[in-house]
Amino acid sequence: MSNKIKIATASLCGCFGCHMSILDIDERLFDLVGKVDFDRSPFTDVKTIGDCDIGIIEGGVANEENVAVLREFRKHCKILVAIGACAIDGGIPAMRNSFSLKECLVESYIDGIGIDNPMIPSDPELPLLLNKVRPIHEVVKIDYSVPGCPPSAETIWTFLTELIEGKSISYPYEQIRFD
Amino acid sequence: MNAKNTKKLKRTVIEPLTRVEGHGKVTLLQDEKQQIVQARLHIGEFRAFEKFIQGRPYWELPVIVQRLCGICPVSHHLAAAKATDMLVGAKQISPTAEKMRRLMHYGQTLQSHALHFFHLCSPDLMFGFDDAIRHRNIVGLIEDQPEIAKQGVLLRKYGQEVIRLTAGKRVHGTGAIPGGVNKSLNHDEVKYLNKDIDQIISWAQGAVALIKRIFFEQLDYNLSFARIESNMLSMIGNDGSFDNYHGGLRATDKQGKIIFDQLDYTKYRDYFKEGVKNWSYMKFPFIQSLGAENGWYRVGPLARVNHCDYFATPLAERERQEFKAIGNGKPIQSTLAYHWARLIELLHCAEAIKLVLQDPDICGDDLINKGKIQNTGIAVLEAPRGTLLHHYEIDDDGIVTKANLIVSTTNNNQAMNESIRQVANQYLSGNKLTEPMLNQIEVAIRAYDPCLSCATHAMGKMPLEISLIDNNNRLIDRLEKRVTGRIDRTL
Fold first, then answer.
1. Residue B484 lies inside a defined structural domain of this protein
2. If one looks up domain A5-95+133-176 in CATH, what number appears?
3. A95: nearest CB among B45, B52, B273
4. Chunked mean pLDDT (size 10), chain A, 179 residues
5. For residue A45, which residues of chain B lie inside 8 Å, CB to CB?
6. Nearest by CB to A179, which of B19, B157, B174?
7. B232 in a structural domain
8. Which of B23, B25, B461 to probe by mutation at the A interface, max A CB count within 10 Å?
């Protein structure tokens, strides 16, 4: 095996926007793949995480499967990073916390416009939903947070390069100002 | 194909699906003769946008609702903006606003199609469905085909730059607002985008040439793989041209006969229903008059390129004619033809961006129109993955009281299920499981470019483990994918 840094990524209850922002490093992707190996990630077909140096989590925790994936990542990653608003504080999906889970399901599958055969899906193949959407630090220890919705590619690039070089991370002002 | 009594059947699970945007899994049930009697794509995640935007003011819609998808946020941003145009009584938006929004959406479709083809699917198509797992991804492409990978990355980058300059930032911008836009382009920005556009068009042509070469290399196989016969639905320009921003709805049957045409989408409630099934959080839309059994349809590039009478740009139009020719006057029902149609659209978007950039209106300063507030706002546009509908009701204070979102991937739900059944029957029935066989199921799903993030608004990944369980619930076979890409039989 190579001595490259190993990185795994996962998106839990998020929108994939943080992963898009990682790809927004554009041509620098070619530099990055020279320095790191991607382990489990939505961009690869590696489905079981191995021991990694850095794990990057997008999205909060909304169902039992999210919890399981998050714990696997914590177990296998030396450094675990929360990327984006949803991982850090639940983000937009946590807006459902103002309502009960039942109210949300009834709106989508019973009372919604144009619903045929109304019922709340409950097949055992479906993972159980959590009552509330949670930030990931409520479930496992997090080493770093990269804020933004999503953080810009520049912010992510600063974070990754300085982390990989073993520096303490410092962002220029324009990389941590938002909308 | 739904088994009545599932207890005595063998269950096989493929989880998670990878190189699709979102989280899904497939279950297969086989009888004693290993014939597939049930195949299902399950979507196990749920967010509740339709509920939690209730109580919010309408002007937040374009920025909140786009956050159900980071891959096509512009499509949701614009669908919500179009619906809020109706809410604020802007019967027509200014030419500058409309052209800025169209430009933004061409950028969106360009980047999403490039991402899907180069970053996610090209490894299957270029290296084969049975390529090594560790290699079957964008990094493998960078190593083996650096020039093609570079073009893919830069095509996507260009689309993202169009979005950044029209919407304010690359992901979750703020450019479209009720009744118009909040900015137009300045001359430096136009110059910046013009600089590379000829190169982008040329690479887009290269992408179409590449998919044609791949498609024709094994024509019969590519025509028949995961092929199903379905109705199709798309929005179409009022003159029958390809239009991904505004128009009427066209639906055709398996033979290409019109079911309805130029339908005013604000009447969608009279034409569409959404079925619920116990085993998926993703709903099953259908055309009401045909019923749930026969009324399902396909959306997205395949439907749009089949449907449109012409592309308004010459290179894409020439490609459309060549594409249509393989159908001999019938709609092309091949599932893998989605890839081909998608790249024709990518080329069209590149050409269309060049045209919009030449229009002085995009530097105009007439940005917003408003009228009398109304309680209902309904909008449809064609997102990269297909027909997208947003519907909002507000009260007299402008607070959202009801919402309905029918997203592109949901429209393809039944079709994806039909396609995996077809593959399961053709390639899995009666066979011992191998990883490439299972990847074929995923290849069928990937052709639709599903965005399960849109459809369920959540995603996650679990390790891949496939178990075969016999009639007595005894485990008889199990395969696991290792981190190294190795597959082990762990029984």
1. yes
2. 3.40.50.700
3. B52
4. 86 93 96 91 82 97 94 98 98 96 95 94 92 98 97 97 94 86
5. 18-19, 133, 136-137, 439, 464, 481, 485
6. B174
7. no
8. B461
Residue B476 belongs to some domain of the structure: yes
Q: Which residue of B has its CA nearest to A13?
A: B458
Is residue B114 helix, strand or coil? helix
For A39, the closest of B25, B27, B483 (CB atoms) is B483
d(CA B183, CA B132): 47
Question: In terms of Cα–Cα distance, which of B259, B214, B251, B254 is closest to B233?
Answer: B251
- pTM higher than 0.95, yes or no? no
Domain hosting residue B461, numbered range: 10-42+411-489
Q: Are B467 and B474 in contact (CB under 8 A)?
A: no
Structure tokens at B220: 């019969």
Look-up of token digits 């937040």: B60
If one counts the domains in chain B, the total is 1
Asked if residue B80 belongs to a domain, the reply is no
What is the chain A residue with the closest CA to B44? A126
The CA distance from A134 to A59, in Å, is 9
**Contact check, Cβ <8 Å, A150/B483:** no
Distance (Å, whole) CA A175 – CA A166: 20
The answer to whether residues A27 and B153 touch, using CB atoms and an 8 Å cutoff, is yes
Neighbouring-strand partners of residue B355: none
For B349-407, write each residue's pLDDT tens digit. 999 999 999 999 999 999 999 999 999 999 999 999 999 999 999 999 999 999 999 99
